[in-house]
Fold:
Amino acid sequence: MSKQQYSALKIESLPGPHDITRSELGNGIVLLVRPNPNSLSVAISGFLQAGSLYDPEPKLGLADFTATTLMRGTAHRTFSEIYNELESMGASLGVSPGAHSAGFGGKSLAEDLPYLLDLLADVLIHPVFPKKPLEKVRSQLLTGLDLRAQDTGEMASLGFDQIAYAGHPYRHPSDGYLETIRAIKRDDLVNFHAKHYGPKKMVIVITGAVKPDKAQELVETSLGGWSNPEQAEIIQVSAVSPLEETTRSHHAMEEKSQADIVLGVVGPRRKWEGFYPALLGNSILGQFGMMGRIGEAVRNRAGLAYYAYSSLSSSIGPGPWTVTAGVAPENLELAIDMIQSEIREYVTEPVSSQELADVQSNYIGRLPLSLESNSGVASALLTMERYQLGLDYLQEYEKMIRDITAEAVLTASRKYLDPDRLAISTAGPPR
Amino acid sequence: MTLLNPIPSIWLKNGLEIKLKEIHTAPLISSWVWYRVGSRDELPGRTGVSHWVEHMQFKGTEKFPAEEREKTIARAGGTWNAFTYLDWTTYFETMPADKIGQALEIEADRMENSLFQPQEVESERTVIISERQGRENHPSFWLTEGIHKAAFQIHSYNHMILGDMVDLGTIQRDDLYQHYKTYYAPNNALISIAGDFNAEMMLERIKELFEELPQREDPPRVDRPEPPQRGEHQLTIEGPGDTVLIDVAHHAPPASHKDFFPFLILDSILTGPQGLNLFGGGGISNKTSRLYTKMVEDQDVAVNVSGGLPATIDPYLYTIHLIVHPASTNDTVLQVLDGEIKRLQDSAPNREELERAARQTRALFAYGGESITNQAFWMGFSEMFASYQWVTEYLQNLETVTPEDVQRVAQEYLLPRNRIVGTYQPHNKVNQDQ
Structure:
């Protein structure tokens, strides 16, 4: 089949300065719009500076609790009115916290965008945190924590954060603990909202069936008048010192068939110059094809696990670089040894030119698939704004990936991945 | 409002069915190969064999060794995967448009030439056991398995798609290979492709790759209809944790039955809207559904409610999932549920509730239709239990459901004698509330 039969990716068809409109409202909100005339719907996405890093220690989970309760009612709409309107038009809207920021996202048919933005502004600016429904949210959060406590993967991940981020704010789970959720009062939510929800450093992205000037007008109308002189300054997180030696913990859980492993290190920040070499290296280590070198060793050759892969989750601060696997309890030590051995080899020799070419090709080739939907484009634009990557980021992306060398991958990986100083957390049947 | 147009099927000489849909909005193509085989085709002793065969289909052929095949797809930036379900098994690739030829070559090759090498079978045995053990770690797995065993005394829907653990220990290479050679035949398969291509040229290439594959005898079918249930089944699964889960499953009509669309509206009214989007398209919340409103909002007996009515060939299950509020009791939860079911049986829902369900479905189609992968999925998926017409007329069929249809379906199906009530009871609550 000749190539001419099919279309290939055209750089100019990617979102870029020619079709992304970026503007800043008078109150500091940054708006990015990218129209898609082929679509019937719109997606909105964004964040503001109200993440779980701002939780006081005795009340971990406060940012999560606050975000979850925003939709329980506003000065202008009851909970029932909010969801009657949303669900009647087949639209959705939600607010959820991350570590640094609270994210929001929604979608609707094109004609309902004015309503969606009006509702977004209402829940961000005028929540009332009604008393009785607040207890309902608390029950839901506590039940979520009960279910978390039964999940070996979640518990291994929590254990990893405790070891790798000891003494650092990232050691805490954003959904808190039973006792901290129980300790939160309504005044805490009101105060958290008053202190952290505001237009400063807020970003909103709109993609889909809307023209930029119309989107700008709608956002100006709904959010342009918002000000919060009390809004707190943004927290900068500190660096994390590597462990002195490999450190392990095991969380014993009764009546479980499988044990989960999360092991790794504290990795780089997203803005670090070696991030992209590390990202490609991570793909070779534990993602490319059937979960990279680790998948090949642990799943394909040894048959030890259904999943065994690596992840690099860099963000504003130093995110984790981990390997995750689920194995039969009797194979736990064998699997850990194999993973350590793969990491050791990975940081000893440069990756082969073929391996590098493979992952470069993968990262470039998958771009159009990630930009297929309005939500996918919105997510890419939000990343570009969050990390100040520039509006031509997607168009420069291919060259940037192609320019990475095997030496750069090794240098970046060695800086963080040390097989003798790993945090190793496991959860499963008692040992 | 028509969101999807009919797509006629084309049959190759060997019986392979083809559906092609040109979509030129993005330089992508999604290709799906569907086989009419799933866990419904398994009897005790061989449960899980369809899913295991699906795993073996990633282990390579003479022409495309496993590792090389994965790299071919990944290098192109494509995504691929496979799913085994009750009634079908499917393999898909979504690729940059100029690379789809590689995926088609791989699919044609593994329709006929997979090796099933003994050492690969043994290595995959432990992987599949690990997959099942991972699921067993979740309380809901045991509950779902218990419900199926209780619901189907005769029909082969009675076991998990992953298979019973005892069979995963005993199935041999020849069992797998025989299953493969019986069901993986062009005359038992369908290819659905959507995306940025010329249909005539695509068909020519498919013929080059697939038409010479040999037609086989029509595969045997397990035909063991489930007789009507004659009384409510109740079961309790005990385990660790603090949260009580209750699943209430009712025997339900198959996708091709006239009652299926009223049942979908019933589900939308009780537990919220469902869509047909497997790949993005997002969900619409269910906060205004009757059960959420009554059980979570008004009476604080549950912390969450959801429901599901899968589209299947034979009568299957409509299941309502409840997470019990820590301050409530199991009996109270079931009383409130029964009260809401009775309300629907006693009086037909109002038109506004039906119209809302249709609007939500229209929106879900609009969101999901952005994905070429969803578009190709819909074409093949619907053919596995009905026809693509089932999808193209989906919205119209929902819009013609009357309030009385919904009431009648509630009266006929949501009966205690037709249901299975399964409870996951944490050990520390076993004697507190039964």
About this structure: Confidence is low (pLDDT under 50) at residues 1-7 of chain A. The two ends of chain A are 57 Å apart (CA to CA). The longest helix of chain A spans residues 131-149. Chain A touches chain B through 77 residues (CB under 8 Å).
